[in-house]
Specification:
single chain; mainly alpha; 7 helices
Length: 247
């Protein structure tokens, strides 16, 4: 009897242990399944987050393109540079110390440069069958207006007080500020031009009136020639007008 009682005593835990093992295995399987489900959900969230970032980047790029004036004319840069150099060379025969002569020469250079730039830009845009007066073009011109107004006021003041030979440095500083003010709407290629004109304009003011004509030829002449040559080379490489947003 004792032996039977002992067998019955130990048989109950054995049955309980045998019954508990399947529960442990099922709980472990459930935990593994839960971890796999969490990993799958997290992976889907990462994919959705990456897709959303790509969509935002695409929207940002499209908005930048809509707000930028993407085309500049290489021919305009070359012609403006040549006009400025010819204006500076004219003082080999003309007297730069005479206010009327100095103002007349650079006035003609300025008006000719504006006319050439407008003509070449319009011609190039129409060749691409695009509208001329777009939102970016309008904002670009509006950004230039304050610098042009300051340059006009300082020009009048310098001629009234007989300090016209100080104007080249002032013009360079105003031109550099005007170019940099268009960076929101203009292509990135204009950044070195703006910085260069600011540096050389300050240098021209410190060098004095004796360097005025030479510095005008260097900045407005050689500077625009360099810009035009760079654009022309890029156009030849790509076989089409350069989209300056990606330069």
């Amino acid at each position: 009897m004792d032996s039977l009682d002992s067998l019955e005593k130990w048989s109950v835990p054995v049955r309980m242990v045998r019954r508990r093992h399947p529960q442990r295995e099922s709980s472990l399987d459930g935990a593994d399944t839960g971890r796999k489900t969490d990993a799958l959900i997290e992976g889907r969230r990462d994919m959705q987050r990456t897709r959303a970032e790509d969509d935002l980047e695409l929207i940002r790029t499209m908005m930048e393109r809509a707000n930028r004036y993407e085309h500049l004319s290489a021919r305009a840069g070359l012609k403006v540079g040549l006009v400025a150099i010819l204006g500076a060379l004219s003082f080999c025969w003309l007297d730069a110390t005479r206010p009327v002569t100095f103002g007349s020469v650079w006035g003609v250079v300025f008006l000719t440069s504006v006319a050439v730039t407008v003509h070449e830009q319009v011609r190039e845009v129409r060749a691409l069958r695009l509208p001329v007066w777009t939102g970016p073009a309008r904002r670009l011109v509006q950004a230039l207006l304050p610098a042009c107004a300051v340059a006009s006021i300082l020009t009048c003041q310098a001629f009234v007080h007989g300090r016209h030979l100080e104007l080249p440095g002032i013009w360079m500083l105003c031109y550099g500020c005007g170019v940099l003010s268009t960076m929101t709407y203009a292509p990135p290629v204009v950044l070195p031009i703006g910085v260069g004109f600011l540096v050389l304009g300050a240098l021209t003011l410190f060098l004095g009136p004796g360097w005025a004509v030479f510095m005008m030829a260097l900045t407005f002449g050689v500077g625009h020639l360099a810009l035009g040559l760079r654009l022309a080379l890029l156009e030849r490489q790509t076989g089409r007008p350069v989209n300056l947003k990606v330069v």
